[in-house]
Amino acid sequence: MKLENKIYLKKYLYFLLILFCCFLIIGNLLFIVQYRSYTKNYNKKINSLLIELQEKYPEMNTNDFMTILNEPATDNQEALTEYGIDITEDAVILENERSFVHYIVIFNLLLFFFFIGLIVLLYCQERKKSREIQEIIHTLEEINRKNYTMTVGDNTEDELSQLKNELYKTTVMLKESAENSATAKKKLKDSLSDISHQLKTPLTSINIMLDNILDHPEMDKKTHELFLQNIKREMRNIYFLAQAILKLSEFDADVVIFENKNVPIEELIKEAVQNVEMLCELKNIKILYEKHPSFTVFCDKKWQVEALTNILKNCIEHAFPKTKIEILVKANTVYSMIKVIDQGEGISKKDLPHIFERFYKGKNARKDSIGIGLALAKAIIEKNNGMIKVDSVLGKGTAFEIRYYK
After folding, report:
1. Could you tell me which of 162, 161, 140 has the C-alpha nearest to residue 150?
2. CB-based contacts of 212: which residues, under 8 Å, 6+ apart?
3. Tens of pLDDT, residues 17-41
4. 69-73, 135-139, 333-337: which is most confident
5. Which of 39, 45, 244, 355 stands the most exposed, by the fewest C-beta atoms within 10 Å?
6. Burial of 183 by CB count in 10 Å (0-12 exposed, 13-18 middle, 19+ buried)?
């Protein structure tokens, strides 16, 4: 890690530098005081010696005495040796000897407290680190217990703070993952419940009709054929439900890979219309659409044809017989738009916010409606960088607007 990111290390260095400077300043002041004390003691003794000499030898000139003091010292130690003083080991002035011991004690005490302060600093910092490490360990233990609550107490940039910040991010991600997992499980449970309910009705009908056929072998041909047609219809509904659920599960699992390319809007509409031609003939409904060869949309053609087909099926189911369904096309620099307008029952204000929900059946839904076609269409469109909205007026019709953003 770069030095600029080690804030705690810089703080240590700054503190040690300040402590060392204080120690250096105090030490130098101590040496200065010691030197002045020595000078004072020497000057006092020499002053006393000079007074004594002047009293005993009044003819002696003071200047001669000062000249002797400032002349280079001789190596002859015989004079002091007579008094038991070694010039290289002993102090001539005893006051300086005591002063020296005094200042040595002070200096050692100063050095001692300097190191004590340094040790206390390191101890406090290590204790702080130990507490932070224990907090991190406690947090990890709580995470293991599925408790994802954690707060970041500081915003410094030392290594432990960075570790805590990264741990906080991991905790947030784990919490979101756990919440998403719980939500996904609930959705799966609800979906399975809905699927079970959706399958129960057609399977019950099939079972009843089969029992009737088996229990009444003498049944007339017309009733027998009607039962078989109904069984076929229910089987078709079950097949459609299974296919739609499989496709929706692919979108839920985010495993659908779109093969996007520029597709003429006219091709999407044409193929979707071909898919619903039989339904249109049954209700004598005409689908009208404008041809705009130059309008294109960047999308996955196969999936978008399916989405548009489901929307057209919904419009045909709720349109009045012998009416028309219009498909309008528009394109600009922001999006390409397909608008499907039917002339039919319309959707109530109560049902309108829920029509894209899975297995939702509105007031005007057919008995054999599964309620999954529009949900699948919405999932396909939105996953392919699009959006869909709907407007409706009861008794007049419904308009679905699809926008594919560029």
Report:
1. 140
2. 219, 227
3. 887 788 788 878 878 887 788 787 7
4. 333-337
5. 39
6. exposed
